[in-house]
Each structure stands twice: as C-alpha cells, then as structure tokens.
C-alpha cells in the first residue's frame, strides 16, 4: 500500500463539509487565484469554452466569466457540496451576463467526463495536489484541450506547511500531511504529457497564527485535511498533541507561529500533432499553389 495515496472519498467528504463556510476561510486560495488572473493579462487567447478544474465554491469561475463574457464556463469539482454552494451563488451572477452559459460537473480530474479536443482553456487553482497520478492527470488534461489550447494552474509545492511537518516529525508512526510535487518535476511531467512551452514559477506565502490549534482549524475550514491512506484512523491523543504543540512553539517568531505555503504556478499549450492517427508524419510547409 502507498501510504501517501490520496483517499478520494475522504477528500469529497472533507470539502463538502467545508463548503458552506469555505469562502470565509479561503484567504490564501483567493489570493493565489487573483495572482493567476493577473497572469492572464499577458495571454491573448480568447477561449469560447473554459473548464475550471477544482472550482470549489465558484469564486474563480465567476472571475473567469467576467474576464471572458462570451465563453461557456464549466465549474468542475470532486465535492458535490462545493458545487451546490457554487450553483446557489451563481444565480444572481448569471443575470449580469445574459447569454453566457455556466454548467456544473461533479467529477475527478483524474478521469474527466469531457470530450477530447473540446476545450480552449483549462484553469485549475490549488487542486492538482489532490491527484494520485499527476503525470497521468496531465495526459488527461491534454486530451480534452483543443490544439493551441491553454492549461493554466497553481498547486502546492514541496515546502508547503514545512513547519507543521517539523512539528509532527517523530511523534508517531502516521502520516499527517499530504506529499507535494517539486516544481521541476511538474515541468517535466507537462512535457512528457505532450504539452509545449511550459512556464513554471514559484513563490512562498507565509501566514501567521496565534497558536497551533488555529493553524489546524484553518486547514479544516477549507477542507484541507490529511487525506492520505497512511493517516491515523482516530482522534489524536493528548500526549501526541502536546508534543506537536511543543515542537511547533519552537518555531514561533515575533510572537506568531508561521505556516509556509510554497505556491507553484504553471501554464503550457497543446501543440498541433506531429503525426496522423495512422502514424504518418505531418510536415508543415509554406508552399502554396
């Protein structure tokens, strides 16, 4: 058994439970989404169909709709609770954009119920870290894109919650945090999946808290619970919690406890195929009759 494998049922439950109060707690997610939107300023693509993968309560979906008012935007999320909140929130918003179509799909990004070559843009804000097979996920995302379509995403990197990782180190034999991919490895995965011209960036954002319980409550409020199969099955014991707290307190700076998030940003394009389905090579020339 892979102890770091993501339990998708647990992910669905956690995010559905968190959906109602998610927007009030998802400060980091909204900030990263805003920074991703800024990156679109340099991209000339005007998509007619967009998929927001891991759409959550739909805040990013609505921003995309405002930016591309002629596009059909699909909010796709693994948690039905998130989509229910998104659908309720979007009712007033849709009235502002007469003629724009918005749809909602409950599905796992690792097995998209989307036709091949049907989408000009795939957008994903802080969702890909919940995939068990990220290389295969990029192949799946590449499949549904049209030629010259764009994948733009953010995800958590390896140093995310490094303070919490230190605090839990050695306290018991269980996993307490998900495992995150390295930025350079993600770039290699994009190329292997058939994408072209990948652009990767990374930054660290540090949030501060008064105590360890506030850190854990914040993660719970956004549904970011430990979902690995190697997690403990029951509640954390008092002794374990005390050791975690003592370890984390050693990291206190200027009266606050830090929680670091490594944010990876990436975008890449789907190039025209170099071969036909029967294996014959496609050669482009400038020759005209």
Task: Describe the protein.
It is a single chain. The protein is an alpha/beta fold and 289 residues long. The protein has a domain at 8-161 and 178-205 and 263-269: 3-Layer(aba) Sandwich (Rossmann fold), CATH 3.40.50.150. The chain is built from ten helices and seven strands. A seven-stranded mixed beta sheet has the order 3-2-1-4-5-7-6, sandwiched between helices. It is globular, with a radius of gyration of 21 Å. 35% of the residues are buried.
Key attributes of the depicted protein:
289 residues, alpha/beta, Rossmann fold, seven-stranded mixed sheet, 10 helices, 7 strands
Number of strands: 7
Discrete helix count: 10
Do you know the CATH architecture of the domain at 8-161 and 178-205 and 263-269? 3-Layer(aba) Sandwich
The helix/strand series, from N terminus to C terminus, equals HHHEHEHEEHEHHEHHE
As for the CATH topology of the domain at 8-161 and 178-205 and 263-269, it is Rossmann fold
State mean pLDDT (0 to 100 scale): 88
- Helical residues, percent: 25-40%
- Main β-sheet, spatial strand arrangement: 3-2-1-4-5-7-6
Largest sheet: 7 strands, mixed
Instruction: Tell me the name of the CATH homologous superfamily of the domain at 8-161 and 178-205 and 263-269.
Output: Vaccinia Virus protein VP39
What is the CATH domain class of the domain at 8-161 and 178-205 and 263-269? Alpha Beta
Query: What fraction of the residues are assigned to beta strands by DSSP?
Result: 15-25%
Quote the distance from N terminus to C terminus: 61 Å
Structural class: alpha/beta
Shape: globular
Alpha-carbon Rg, integer: 21 Å
Note poorly predicted spans. Answer: none
